[in-house]
Write a structure and sequence with these properties.
Length: 490
Amino acid sequence: MSTLQSFDARTGLALGAALPAPTAAQIDASVEAAAQAFPAWAASSGTQRATLLRGLAEALEADREGLVALADQESGLGSGRLNGELDRTTFQLRRFADLAEQGAAFAFTDDPAVAGAPPAGHPAMVRQRVPLGPVAMFSASNFPFAFSVLGGDTASALAAGCSVVVKAHNGHLLLSNRIFQLIQDVLRSQQLPAGLIGLVQGAGNEVGRQLIRHPAIAAGAFTGSTRGGAALQAEANARPRPIPFYGELGSINPVVALPSVLEARGAELAATLASSITQGCGQFCTNPGLIVLVDGPATDTFLPQLAAALAAQQPHGMLTSGLRSAFDQGVEQLLAAGAQPLVHEAGGAAAPRPFLAQIDAATFIAKPALHEEVFGPSSLVVRAGSVQQVLEVLQAVGGSLTVTLWGAEQDNTDNRALVRGAMAIAGRVLFSGVPTGVAVSAGQQHGGPWPASTQPLSTSVGDAALDRFLRPVCLQDAPAWLLARQGQPV
Ligand code: NAP
């Protein structure tokens, strides 16, 4: 029988006993249990959904100390950050509970009949939504709570009326199993079927592939690397019956800092950027991996300020040894493509040193190797000759979770062009602050054109995340009893 092993992120030593790796038959059984639990959950009321989501939030809070300690051992992210992330996770669960209770999943459009010939005349129609079915949910390594077993994907899928099978991340296996036990206790106490939320795990990619290929799975929700997301999206598309696959992937998150703002607040912005680049050892999908500046005296003054602020940072260790070596490879790739180092202290230590390099805009645009995310405390400065060239740089990036525009306060032709250019490639455009930190709220959009996500029309964070798991259906000339349901499940 093959086994799985958790590791201490700081020491690299084995943590806890080996866990049995599930067989293919056990993985199928988890999906089948989720498929059996689905019809009753799809027919559940908003109150029932809210009760489950609130129960799950309470269970996390009741075990906070143990969960955070375990997450810290497996991820090395530190208890301050992990306590904050747990708060965010319970906030998300409760927010989706409120939305479920308010009937967000049952909202409908009433379109009464119009007498007369078509196209103006039409029958009575009601447009409402139905949950898709069991969702395969893939956890990310860098958010052991908020984008993992009980993260936003699971919360929004449950609120929509879907059952869920979670693929645990190998980077925090023990934490995933502990949270899964809490889930089972809550399901039992609410007399809900154990299969409503399943957990599968395994080394290598086969488990994920088997999960997304299973005929009973109706959608995939993934947070992770562009390469992993692309592979699983291809599996979802290759099924005899393809399914929606919501992949939240990597991103380089350009920050455009115009000369006016650098002249006014250069030193302060250098410190702000340096801390955003190294926060959590740079292991954020919204890490500012690209800084776009316009050549001139303000940029010449700013760059040494940024380099000094970054060199003074001391990032902690990375989540896994695999991500640590991937960081070195990413830095090597930037250097090989011609990036000139500004902060670069090579070293084999578990905690990487921050990396900063610069490149001219024309070379950046010409070399796709410079457009790839380097996951970790790294950023690339692109020096443009004009605002027009800044726009060409954004176009070359093509897709990003965020673009930040510093200094676009005036309504003028350049700033309008920059806002258009930023909106064309990003899910979220910021005009102050840094892209790290993604608020869970009604106005949030966390996604963006490829390679930021596989579905730029949807968001994985915020209230609208629920919409990913609901399919619209039009009821035409429906009988009175059905209309009286007002979008509620039948
Ligand atoms: P990852 O290596 O892609 O892993 C994510 C999940 O996908 C894991 O469960 C992994 O399982 C599975 N997987 C990866 N490649 C696969 C393949 N070829 N076939 C089947 N399954 C596969 O990502 P990560 O290291 O956890 O996270 C880091 C990345 O996530 C960064 O690029 C970061 O920017 C991105 N991220 C994005 C967001 C967002 O919201 N957009 C948020 C957080 C992180 P195995 O480990 O078993 O292979």
